[in-house]
Structure formats: structure tokens, C-alpha cells
Backbone:
């Protein structure tokens, strides 16, 4: 066991209606990377950011007639903590694999458009929108990647490859469009 971690356990119960509260709590917890131990009981590594978001959730649940308990845990047994870290990493790895696959689709699209010579400003705009989506998605995964999975570096490299590919494609479009715009009719 190398470093001592602190953990936050959040247990909650919300009224059945309106269901929007239950969905909002669940979505918020998933978005910050919570690992569910069982229904309505989840664990997170304790950081100042997580503590702040958990406090906001606690207030939201309480304000809507729910029950919530926040527990700070200083120590799990050694194997339990290792299992906990592995569970968090497993969740992130699933996300990273999906992200990397989307990057591969992006790269294939650029390759296809290049091979057929479809060098248009419209294609640049389309791909810029997709690249922004990929960057945003990657940032969200990184924010939940508390323990640096095996895919952390690979996903960054794949995103960098997408950026470079779009830059190269955009340069080709500018060269093509510039030549067409400079021609006299």
C-alpha cells in the first residue's frame, strides 16, 4: 500500500416522485465518477472538488425531502481499497475504449474525405464540430480518471492524432479552396 487515500461514501434516498430528482442525482453522481456499491450507495475518492459537489448534492436531496448521509472513510482494508481502485479504473477503461473507437471513426472519416478529394470548407466545419465534441468528452473522462488507467495516455495520444489529422486536412482544403478562388473564370 503506497499512499493513504481518503474516500467519501454517499448514501441517499429520494422520494419516488418526481422522478426527475432521482435521475438528476444519479446523473450527477455518474458524471463526477461515482462508483455504486449498491443501489443509492456510492463511493468517491475524497478531493476538495468532490467534497463540494457532494455537499451540493446533499443540499439538493435534503431540500427535496430526501435523506442523505455522507461518510468520510480514512481507510478500507488493503484488499478492499485495491478492489475499489480497480473498480474505478474498470469504469474509466470502458469509457476510454469507447472514446478511442470514436477517435478512430473520426480519423477514418478524414482519411475517406482525403482519398476522394473532398476538400471543402463544409467538411472542415463538420470535422471541427466533431473534434470539439471529442475534446469535451475526453476532458470529462479525465476528470473522472482519479487513478490514471492504462488508457489515459493512449486516449490523449489518439486525441492528439485527431487534432493533427484535422490540421493537415484543413491545410489541404485551404490550398484547394485558395487555388479555386484565385482562378479567373
Residues:
Amino acid at each position: 500500500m503506497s499512499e493513504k487515500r481518503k474516500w467519501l461514501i454517499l448514501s441517499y434516498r429520494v422520494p419516488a416522485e418526481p422522478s426527475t430528482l432521482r435521475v438528476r442525482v444519479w446523473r450527477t453522481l455518474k458524471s463526477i465518477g461515482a462508483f455504486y456499491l449498491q443501489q443509492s450507495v456510492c463511493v468517491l475518492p475524497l478531493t476538495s472538488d468532490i467534497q463540494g459537489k457532494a455537499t451540493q448534492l446533499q443540499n439538493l436531496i435534503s431540500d427535496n425531502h430526501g435523506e442523505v448521509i455522507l461518510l468520510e472513510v480514512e481507510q478500507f482494508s488493503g484488499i478492499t481499497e485495491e478492489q475499489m481502485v480497480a473498480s474505478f479504473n474498470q469504469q474509466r477503461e470502458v469509457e476510454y475504449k469507447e472514446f478511442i473507437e470514436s477517435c478512430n471513426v473520426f480519423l477514418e472519416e478524414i482519411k475517406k474525405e482525403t482519398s476522394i478529394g473532398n476538400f471543402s470548407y463544409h467538411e472542415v466545419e463538420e470535422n471541427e464540430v466533431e473534434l470539439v465534441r471529442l475534446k469535451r468528452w475526453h476532458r470529462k473522462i479525465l476528470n473522472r480518471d482519479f487513478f490514471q488507467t492504462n488508457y489515459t495516455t493512449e486516449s490523449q495520444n489518439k486525441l492528439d492524432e485527431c487534432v493533427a489529422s484535422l490540421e493537415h486536412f484543413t491545410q489541404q482544403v485551404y490550398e484547394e479552396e485558395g487555388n479555386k478562388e484565385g482562378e479567373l473564370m
Remarks:
- The two ends are 74 Å apart (CA to CA).
- The first strand starts at residue 7 and ends at 13.
- The mean pLDDT is 92.
- Helices lie at 19-31, 48-63, 78-115, 121-144, 152-182.
